Each structure stands twice: as structure tokens, then as C-alpha cells.
């Protein structure tokens, strides 16, 4: 099975803003406000738990299990930074992850107007 990092890479390479990992559906990405399923089999509860837990520390796993929800941020070297919300829904672990650009749009546009960027 693919890893969460594999799905995050597809998300970034596709220009998507979000990745959704939910039981009963394939992983899905959000592009221009629309949801697009990835070419992957439907995820089972064990799959979503394995995917989401792979990026959590032991302390974060405990907090998720106590509170049924966890907000976090993390980075994947050479790819991007992400904000995530991992939660327990109908007894299964699910997650939503949003890409945070390394260079904010304001800085990127400012560099462009100054002739320092593309």
C-alpha cells in the first residue's frame, strides 16, 4: 500500500490544496474547490489508521485517542509543510491535510514585482 508521503506528493504535484483520507473511499485531493479521488482502492479502517498514525508521535496518538481529534503541523523534507486534522469518525481514524507553501504568496508576488523571482 502507498504511504501518506506518497499521497502528499501526488497532492503537491497535482497542485491540490488538500488531501482527505477517509474510510470507505479512496484518498481524495481538493483541486480548485472540487474533490478528485486518487487512483487507489477504497481505504479500510486499518488503512486510514496506518496512514494517519504514520505521521504522529506517541504523544499525539494518545491525545487523538483521548480527544477524538488532533490538529498538527509537519513537514516532508523536499516537498512541503502541511497542517493536518486527524480525527475519529464513526469509530475509524480519518484525516485532512492542507499544504502550506514554503514561500507565502505575498512574498512570491513581491519578489516577482521587484524582478527577483518568476
From TrEMBL:
It comes from the Bacteria. InterPro entries: P-loop_NTPase. This is Twitching motility protein PilT. It comes from Desulfuromonas acetoxidans (strain DSM 684 / 11070).
Amino acid at each position: 500500500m502507498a504511504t501518506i508521503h506518497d499521497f502528499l506528493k501526488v497532492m503537491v504535484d497535482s497542485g491540490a490544496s488538500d488531501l482527505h483520507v477517509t474510510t470507505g473511499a479512496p484518498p481524495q485531493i481538493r483541486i480548485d474547490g472540487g474533490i478528485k479521488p486518487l487512483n487507489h482502492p477504497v481505504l479500510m479502517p486499518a488503512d486510514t489508521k496506518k496512514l494517519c498514525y504514520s505521521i504522529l508521535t506517541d504523544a499525539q496518538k494518545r491525545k487523538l485517542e483521548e480527544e477524538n481529534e488532533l490538529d498538527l503541523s509537519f513537514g516532508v523534507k523536499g516537498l512541503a509543510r502541511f497542517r493536518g486534522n486527524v480525527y475519529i469518525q464513526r469509530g475509524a481514524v480519518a484525516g485532512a491535510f492542507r499544504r502550506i507553501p514554503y514561500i507565502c504568496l505575498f512574498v512570491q508576488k513581491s519578489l516577482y514585482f521587484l524582478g527577483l523571482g518568476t
